């Protein structure tokens, strides 16, 4: 998590460091990224970097957390527009997410993030200092979903649904950014998989 010295910086100086970091993390995977490149591009001394963040991993996960929060806010905005219809919101959110690869500032950063995501890093993200902020964002999402559109009993079941569709969404984003599917292929696959969840998989028994 950023240190108070970073949070106390003027917004333009924060943004300068963030953009330099994103540039480096878009150039190479995390384990190859260089603090020297980041501070050179940002025009700050190495000592200042360590006054702002513990290490490059700390900065990297801060950037990922920003992306996660922005995506959650986008989903909540779409949910409001769709009057709480979860599946309509998911389809639109996925289209928005894959559109990011057409923006140079996002594509390589997200591609390396998905490419290097593994169980250890997922656990790091799940258990690090940002867990509470993401939990708050997701609780807002749960409140915005209208469960009358869904064949579920309560918010607890909704929480399980969100986990299931979240896993499907993550898998499909990996296919987009790592395996370079076309937009058309990605949308077709995602909507087919989510539609199976929407429809249900067990055939009704015939008396």
UniProtKB/TrEMBL annotation:
Residues 34-53 bind DNA. Residues 11-71 form the HTH tetR-type domain. InterPro entries: Homeodomain-like_sf, HTH-type_Tx_Regulator, HTH_TetR. The keyword Transport does not apply. The keyword Repressor applies. It comes from the Bacteria. It comes from Terribacillus saccharophilus. Keywords: DNA-binding, Repressor. This is TetR family transcriptional regulator.
């Amino acid at each position: 998590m950023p240190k108070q010295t970073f949070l106390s910086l003027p917004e333009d100086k924060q943004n300068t460091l963030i953009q330099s970091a994103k540039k480096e993390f878009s150039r190479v995977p995390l384990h190859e990224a260089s603090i020297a490149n980041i501070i050179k591009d940002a025009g700050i001394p190495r000592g200042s970097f360590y006054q702002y963040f513990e290490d490059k991993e700390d900065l990297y996960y801060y950037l990922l957390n920003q992306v996660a929060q922005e995506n959650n806010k986008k989903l909540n905005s779409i949910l409001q527009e769709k009057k709480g219809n979860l599946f309509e919101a998911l389809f639109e959110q996925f289209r928005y997410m894959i559109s990011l690869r057409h923006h140079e500032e996002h594509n390589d950063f997200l591609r390396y993030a998905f490419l290097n995501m593994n169980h250890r890093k997922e656990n790091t993200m799940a258990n690090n200092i940002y867990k509470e902020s993401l939990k708050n964002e997701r609780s807002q999402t749960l409140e915005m979903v209208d469960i009358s559109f869904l064949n579920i009993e309560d918010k607890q079941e909704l929480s399980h649904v969100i986990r299931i569709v979240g896993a499907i969404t993550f898998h499909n984003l990996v296919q987009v950014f790592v395996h370079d599917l076309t937009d058309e292929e990605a949308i077709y696959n995602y909507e087919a998989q989510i539609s199976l969840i929407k429809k249900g998989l067990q055939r009704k028994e015939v008396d």
